[in-house]
Write a structure and sequence with these properties.
The complex is a heteropentamer. Chain A is α/β, with parallel strands linked by helices. Helix content of chain A is 40%, strand content 27%. Classes of the chains: A alpha/beta, B mainly alpha, C mainly alpha, D alpha/beta, E alpha/beta. Chains A and D meet through α6, α7, α8 and α10 of A and α6, α7 and α10 of D. The complex binds adenosine-5'-triphosphate (2 copies) and magnesium ion (2 copies).
């Protein structure tokens, strides 16, 4: 589905990603783990076209997308829940959700999906007229997730979806991720600090360090890899 | 009482004039957070373009109705084109620059455009053709309100309603609000931010052009420097109403216009601007985000 | 290095400008005689001019990108040469000494006229440094700075007129009065956020000017106050030339004091608080910084300098009227700060020299002067958005640690 | 061991329009104690911090602070944030709010602001007192940086730090204000296990230096190992209170917050 | 000094007031070219040094210093009163005579502060006097609204007019106010004029505001008499205000169209620049003639000698046969009242 070939990016004078190669097959859950500042978020932003790709290729279903503008990439079915949630603070919850479906035109489908996300997170239905900026951190995370789902993505990029959430909700979020993957057959690329749980639900995983992919393997193999255990699982 | 009504009407006219310009300010500010000092110049260019087109057409003997329509459309087209170009040249490259850089670039643009029109045309005042005729049925109240005042009032009302509808309910309106809030996220939900910003400039500039045409024909003369004062006043009005808010811009403009009118009528025109600016200071002290502006969401 | 694609693009740009400038550049109507003249030749000039400019701009951006790429490969961030020089004490002091020497010798080397122009430039430098405290360091966008300048100028003009008070007496009074005005205005409005503050200060600037213009009994209105005395020097009689040169040295002196003070302020507890306030007010408050008070200090300090220069302005022109204190003046001073590089003293000095001397030397362009000025302002911002010189962050050294390590070694 | 009471909150209520974010909340903190505040997302924990530090004005209720050194008692309601900090309460933020364009050291030096006093004249003339004060500020700030493990990066821009380091810097900056009560809002969010472990020892060290700590956190492992007492909130109300052992088995807490399998997941 | 006589020409040559300053440059060039063609003054060539002051006081001091440092012998200019006031002390200290074609502020001559100042235009108070006399004595109006544009020139004039009306006892000032130049709409002030039931408006200021106010008054169906000054006695006013301009009175320099010197000067301008001369051309031409004549008669550029020559030697100029009184005002120039009739200013009795 998605393939990164020798991708290099950076900000200004700093190069962040070095020669990154990644493959994600349709229907998979793939996770990317790594320390703070390793370049995980940057990888996602590069895929979405926000951070320009300096060298290398990004292929979506075989089509080169690294030169496309972000809105074109979204139109191809790649959605992201960015780090820091990026809620439209002055818009209501409902309006935030509508914006998620910005590129869609099927009114019926949008309505169905709205019901769907409200059923996933009832608190959002309750707060639909509250402005997004005043939600609590966890509520915002739910809203950000829902907004991405409203676009019916084929490839969903999740940047630390469990950050700042209560334990109960974390469990729930990971279940929802699994559910989306199963029910809607959405391919998921998951960036997580919570490596433990991420690897539990993922099919495969990559480990990134200082902007370089240093490990790539099946999720359960990574779970039992002693280096990974030591560095990312706290065992 | 008559005197009061007279002053009220002239205040309304003045306020509506400000409103047409203030709307453009507010839209641009709302979306890229920039005080677009060149907006007054866009309005001036609108007035000039309509002056040129109207005069040419009247020289070639076109009927008045055709002149009004063509001049209006031409003014809107060219003003929008200028607005679009100014954004591309002076603001777009500065999207990621420090906050004040675009402000200075806007001031530079304002100086540049003024002098461009001065050199391309003339420094003299020019008589603007009377495009809005005095209607016969208005004769009994002509001393209170003229037909151009009525046209200005109507236009402002219609424009405000249309704009509010556009922002609240249309796709592009939603895209504008999203872009205003968080540009990165707007990109991530698939909004073409560049196009939305351009659209904002185009709409705002077209409004300014319509304002230019109406005001110039109301006052009867134009020159290259008319944009500056009108621009400052309109901006004040936009802030008064709560910058970023469409109804706020109109409300602020009307209040400003009425204040100036009553201050002139009952106190002294020497200090009309002092009253206007003092009112601004007072209102902002008690409502720091303007009359209809959203209070800053302070979630920590 | 210029490809066909770029040429094509430039062609499109030039076509667009032909369209854009068509009504204003090509048509000229004479509404009195009812004639229209079509100036087609202008169209050609526009086409050629924009084509060339567009190509040049493209080339510049291409070069910039290449340079960035190259630097990235070498993995080294590049500091401008001036900055490098400034950071090295070995160069810094000789350079400063040289500049000071040149400044002192200037009136001897050039005509009084040149010295006079330089005095104006020096005044703007100090104004810029004053506003820099407010805008550059504390991050308060003040569009009505000229109001305080007017307060200073008029306090000297009026005190001199009515009470015959001398320059040296009024100099501090003017500064303090302006600072007082700063406090009076700042107190209610400083809690406004960014651009609201900007418009309120702009309004305040206009209010001051309008009052000066309309209140004849107080300020003599638009006709202004003339025959203001020039500064004295221990009662010495001076010819005009001497007076001007004296003025020049006085400004040099004031500039040195200003640089010294501003530099120290920036490097102090207060300066740090200003910088922090510029970034995050809530975090600042949580760190125990009194937001209002700290802002007020910045605001009134900026006003103080404007007041000082106001007094000097009145003494230099010997005439003041409200027309000298328009919004444009505030805009120019603000441009000096932003253009030079916010928060940087050297930047402000460069910015002021450019913006004040530029119009003087653009005189050759006669009627195109202001057009060029506007264009240069835009171009400088596009090509150097952070300003000419960015502020340099001081590196603090830690004495305690050396002591600690020394102790450890002893043990 | 019954330490001195330093913070006593009673009946604290906070309304936002129609939403009641805090509902008659009672809470107390004693000196040298680590107290955790937990609860589902949107329970009102951050709002509680904001009321405590003067960023929000509570609609109702009482916040009383007693200084352990002087024993002086004061009411915090309605005080400005900076006054509260001066009284000895410092905080970190859930969304990092560092001065990102300033250096690491300067960030900490800002924290010293309320414990120093030089003003304009001091800055200009730089008398002996000012110089001494300034040097002290630098030295103390360095000490704090060493404590939080950032001395090496002292002259880097705060924005160039890694996420975990930024969190630690926030704590350091708060410590610089010499608080006796430190409020930490999700200090471990976004940290990996290694960094979390470092954080735990840092917090313990701070506690041992006579600071009381009030902590919001979703990382149960950290909460359970660190805290002396735990308060649990839901919908603005306190639903439970007790030692970690008590909370772990509290039915209401498990239902509202922990979920059944908390042990296994946060292994 | 040296073999040439250096004459400075200072005024607004760029910016929005350029149209008032540039005609002076043309006038000076014409006079000097003609002189030089005839062999100069007392055998010395005359050289012009032209400086732009954009009508700003602070810039004017710079241009003045520049001229002085270049060693000028006399200066024609400055154009605006404010700029003139700030520049005068510099010329005074350098012993340079200034002769202005357009600075009308009364203080310049009446205060006695500027012995080196002369002008070929009547001062504002004379003009105000003419307006008031005409309104009270010829038109016989009683209630007068005095309006101005808050500017140096307009407000000064308005204040004199107000003073004269009050002193005369023949009429009342029912309104005295300033309008903001460039405002988008003047209906409020016009309503106020109506409310004050004024028979006449005396306006001090320039033509753009005058035409806006007149048009607005006519739009509001008011036929109040409108009197103004030489800032309005400009054909542009009639062109811009159109039919609303009919009947408006304005004072202006005495009609010189029959004066052969004026005719020759205008003809020379047409020949040289292929266009009609602009504002203050005639008084600038006169100023140039007067100063050159004085230097020639004094056979020196010493200030005392030239001053004496200016005061004693009468010279034929486009504005009449003039010399200067001891304060510096030209004797022999005067004002006349004009009225717009059929789209043209016509002198009235
Ligand atoms: N906008 C930016 N400008 C400059 N540098 C940046 C920017 N964003 C990130 N960086 C740098 O790029 C590097 C990688 O950052 P990135 O955010 O991708 O890390 P991450 O793996 O997502 O870390 P985290 O777990 O903290 O989210 C870091 O060194 C960071 O400092
Ligand atoms: N300024 C505000 N205006 C309106 N509602 C607010 C505001 N601040 C907070 N709230 C509401 O108060 C409630 C509590 O929010 P708070 O941020 O305190 O939650 P929290 O317990 O910190 O949650 P989390 O663990 O997710 O950070 C939420 O429902 C939120 O929407
Ligand atoms: Mg990240
Ligand atoms: Mg929270």
């Amino acid at each position: 589905m998605l393939e990164l070939k020798n991708v290099e990016t950076g900000y200004g004078h700093i190069q962040v990603l070095h020669d990154v190669n990644l493959t994600i097959h349709a229907g998979e859950i793939v996770t990317l783990i790594g320390a703070n500042g390793a370049g995980k978020s940057t990888t996602l932003m590069t895929i979405s076209g926000i951070v320009p790709c300096r060298r290398g290729q990004i292929l979506l279903r075989g089509q080169e997308i690294q030169a496309l503008s972000p809105d074109k990439i979204v139109a191809l079915g790649v959605c992201q829940v960015p780090e820091g949630r990026h809620i439209f603070a002055d818009l209501t919850v409902r309006e935030n959700l509508d914006l998620g479906a910005f590129l869609r035109t099927d009114k019926v489908g949008i309505k169905q999906d709205l019901e769907y996300v409200y059923s996933l997170f009832p608190i959002l239905a309750e707060r639909r007229h509250q402005s997004g900026g005043t939600l609590s951190g966890g509520q915002q995370q739910m809203l950000a997730m829902s907004r991405a789902l409203m676009a019916r993505p084929q490839l969903l990029l999740l940047d630390e979806p469990s950050m700042g959430l209560a334990p109960l909700i974390i469990t729930q979020i990971f279940e929802i991720i699994k559910a989306i993957n199963k029910e809607h057959n959405t391919t998921i690329f998951l960036v997580e600090q919570n490596a433990h749980q991420a690897l539990h639900i993922a099919d495969r995983g990559y480990v990134i360090e200082n902007g370089r992919i240093i490990l790539a393997d099946n999720a359960d193999k990574l779970l039992s890899n002693p280096d990974v255990q030591k560095a990312y699982l706290g065992i | 009482m008559d005197y009061f009504i007279e002053l009220f009407c002239s205040g309304l006219t003045r306020g509506s004039i400000y409103a047409l310009i203030a709307l453009g300010y507010t839209m641009v500010y709302g979306i890229i957070g920039l005080i677009n000092f060149a907006h007054g110049e866009i309005y001036m260019i609108g007035a000039f373009t309509s002056f040129i087109v109207a005069t040419v057409l009247s020289i070639y003997g076109f009927p008045l109705a055709a002149i009004v329509v063509v001049a209006g459309v031409a003014a809107a087209i060219w003003s929008s084109a200028y607005g679009y170009t100014v954004e591309k040249i002076a603001y777009k490259p500065l999207r990621h620059a420090p906050r004040l850089a675009p402000l200075i670039s806007a001031i530079g643009m304002s100086i540049l455009l003024q002098n461009y029109v001065l050199l391309a045309q003339t420094s003299d005042f020019l008589p603007f053709p009377e495009l809005i005729p005095e209607f016969a049925f208005m004769e009994p109240i002509a001393h209170i309100i003229g037909s151009s005042d009525i046209v200005i009032l109507l236009t402002t009302t219609v424009v405000m309603l249309a704009l509010t509808f556009l922002i609240k309910f249309t796709r592009i309106g939603k895209a504008m609000r999203a872009t205003a809030q968080d540009r990165t996220m707007a990109l991530l939900v698939g909004i073409n931010v560049d196009r939305v910003i351009s659209a904002t400039f185009i709409i705002g500039s077209a409004l300014a052009a319509i304002g230019g045409l109406l005001i110039a024909s109301h006052i009867g003369q134009i020159n290259f420097a008319i944009g500056f004062i009108a621009g400052i006043k309109a901006f004040t009005a936009a802030v008064l109403g709560g910058i970023g808010s469409i109804p706020g811009a109109v409300l602020g403009s009307l209040i400003l216009g009425l204040t100036e009118s009553f201050a002139t009528g009952y106190i002294s025109s020497d200090y009309e601007d002092v009253f206007a600016f003092s009112l601004l200071v007072l209102i902002l002290i008690f409502k720091p985000s303007g009359l209809l502006g959203k209070a800053e969401t302070k979630k920590v | 290095m210029i490809t066909v694609k770029e040429v094509k693009k430039s062609l499109l740009v030039s076509l667009w400008f032909v369209f854009l400038t068509f009504p204003l550049m090509v048509i000229k109507v004479n509404p009195y005689e009812r004639t229209v003249s079509w100036r087609w030749s202008n169209m050609l000039y526009v086409a050629i001019g924009t084509f060339v400019i567009s190509l040049l701009a493209k080339a510049w951006f291409v070069r910039k990108e290449r340079r960035m790429a190259r630097q990235q490969d070498s993995c080294r961030s590049r500091t401008p040469i001036i900055q490098k020089i400034l950071q090295r004490p070995g160069y810094r002091y000789p350079l400063a000494a040289f500049l000071l020497g040149a400044a002192l010798a200037f009136p001897q080397l050039f005509s009084t006229y040149q010295a006079n122009i330089m005095t104006t430039a020096l005044m703007y430098i100090v104004l810029g440094l004053g506003l820099n405290i407010v805008v550059g360091v504390a991050g308060l966008l003040d569009l009505g700075y000229v109001a305080f300048y007017a307060v200073g100028a008029y306090s000297y003009a009026l005190l001199n007129l009515h009470f015959g008070m001398g320059f040296w007496t009024v100099l501090p009074i003017g500064g303090l009065l302006a600072a007082l005005f700063g406090v009076l205005l700042g107190f209610p409005v400083l809690r406004l956020r960014g651009d609201y503050l900007a418009i309120v200060t702009l309004g305040f600037g206009e209010i001051i000017r309008l009052i000066l213009e309309n209140w004849n009994a107080f300020s003599k209105g638009p006709s202004g106050i003339s025959n203001i005395s020039r500064p004295g020097f221990f009662g010495m009689e001076m010819s005009l030339d001497q007076a001007m040169i004296y003025m020049y040295y006085l400004m040099i002196g004031l500039l040195l004091v200003t640089i010294f003070v501003v530099n120290r302020l920036q490097d102090s507890r207060l300066g740090r608080a200003w910088l922090a306030l510029r970034e995050d007010e809530i975090a600042c408050q949580a760190m125990g910084i009194d937001k209002t008070r700290t802002k007020l200090i910045a605001f009134s300090l900026g006003a103080f300098w404007a007041g000082l220069i106001g007094v000097i302005f009145a003494a230099k022109t010997t005439f003041v009227n409200p027309a000298s204190f328009t919004f444009m003046e505030s805009a120019i001073i603000l441009s000096i700060v932003v253009l030079g590089g916010m928060g940087s003293i050297v930047g402000v000095i460069l910015g002021a020299l450019i913006l004040v001397l530029l119009p003087e030397y653009l005189r050759a362009l006669s009627e195109y002067r202001m057009l060029a000025f506007g264009a240069i302002l835009v171009a400088m911002m596009i090509f150097k958005p952070e300003g000419l010189i960015a502020g340099v962050r001081r590196v603090y050294c830690y004495q305690g640690r050396k002591r600690n390590t020394a102790l450890k070694n002893d043990e | 061991m019954m330490n001195k009471l330093i913070l006593e909150v009673s009946g604290l209520t906070m309304d936002f329009g129609g939403i009641r974010a805090l509902d008659r909340l009672d809470l107390d903190v004693r000196s040298k104690e680590i107290v955790a505040l937990i609860g589902p997302n949107g329970a009102g924990k951050t709002t509680f911090f904001n009321c405590l530090t003067g960023i929000y004005l509570p609609s109702n209720g009482d916040i009383r602070l007693v200084s352990p050194q002087t024993g002086k008692e004061s009411r915090l309601n309605g005080l400005k944030p900076n006054k509260i900090t001066e009284k000895g309460v410092a905080r970190t933020f859930q969304n990092i709010r560092l001065f990102s364009q300033m250096t690491v050291l300067e960030n900490v030096m800002i924290g010293r602001h309320c414990r120093t006093s030089s003003l304009i004249l001091g800055a200009i003339f730089r008398g002996r007192k000012t110089r001494k004060e300034e040097q002290e500020t630098i030295d103390k700030s360095y000490e704090i940086l060493e404590k939080v493990g950032l001395a090496e990066q002292a002259n880097e821009f705060a924005s160039n730090l890694s996420y975990g380091a930024q969190r630690r810097l926030e704590i350091g900056r708060a410590l610089a204000t010499e608080p006796f009560l430190l409020l930490l809002d999700e200090p471990a969010a976004g940290m990996n296990p290694q960094e979390t472990a470092d954080l735990v020892s840092l917090i313990l060290q701070i506690r041992d230096e006579d600071h009381a700590i009030l902590l919001i956190e979703h990382d149960m492992k950290l909460v359970m190992t660190l805290s002396d007492r735990i308060f649990v909130m839901d919908y603005g109300e306190k639903i439970a209170q007790g030692t970690p052992a008590e909370i772990r088995v509290n039915r209401a807490v498990i239902k509202a917050y922990l979920g059944e399998d908390v042990e296994s997941d946060n292994a | 000094a040296g073999n040439t006589i250096k004459i400075g020409v200072a005024g607004a040559h760029s910016g929005d007031l350029a149209s008032y300053g540039l005609p002076t440059v043309n006038a000076a060039k014409l006079v000097v070219d003609e002189l030089n063609a005839k062999g100069g003054v007392n055998g010395k060539k005359v050289e012009l040094l032209i400086e732009d002051d954009v009508c700003k006081p602070e810039v004017a001091t710079n241009s003045a210093t520049k001229l002085v440092s270049q060693g000028v012998d006399a200066v024609i200019g400055h154009i605006c009163s404010g700029a003139t006031k700030s520049a005068l002390p510099i010329y005074k200290a350098a012993g340079v005579i200034l002769i202005s074609p357009s600075a009308t502020n009364p203080e310049l001559t009446q205060s006695g502060d500027y012995p080196n100042f002369f002008r070929t235009i009547a001062s504002d108070d004379m003009q105000a006097r003419a307006e008031v006399d005409y309104a009270l004595n010829v038109l016989g109006v009683k209630k007068i609204a005095v309006i101005h544009d808050k500017g140096d020139y307009g407000k000064g004039l308005a204040e004199f007019a107000k003073g004269f009306i009050e002193k005369s006892g023949k009429g009342d000032v029912v309104l005295f106010e300033g309008v903001t130049p460039g405002a988008v709409d003047y209906s409020a002030i016009v309503q106020k004029i109506r409310q004050a039931k004024a028979d006449a408006v005396i306006f001090g200021g320039y033509h753009p505001e005058a035409s806006k106010i007149v048009s607005m008054m006519r739009k509001k169906r008011m036929d109040t008499v409108f009197l103004s000054d030489d800032g309005v006695k400009d054909d542009t006013f009639i062109k811009v205000a159109g039919k609303d301009a009919e009947g408006v009175y304005a004072t202006g320099p005495k009609d010189n169209s029959k004066n052969p010197v004026a005719q020759a000067a205008i003809a020379a301008h047409r020949k040289a620049y292929n266009s009609d001369p602009g504002a203050f051309f005639e008084s600038a031409y006169s100023a140039a003639l007067a100063i050159m004549n004085a230097i020639e008669k004094a056979d020196s550029t010493e200030i005392a000698a030239v001053t004496k020559a200016l005061q004693t030697e009468t010279v034929e100029t486009p504005v009449g046969n003039i010399h200067f009184d001891e304060r510096g005002d030209a004797v022999g120039v005067g004002f006349a009242m004009y009225q717009v009739k059929n789209g043209q200013y016509v002198k009235v009795k």
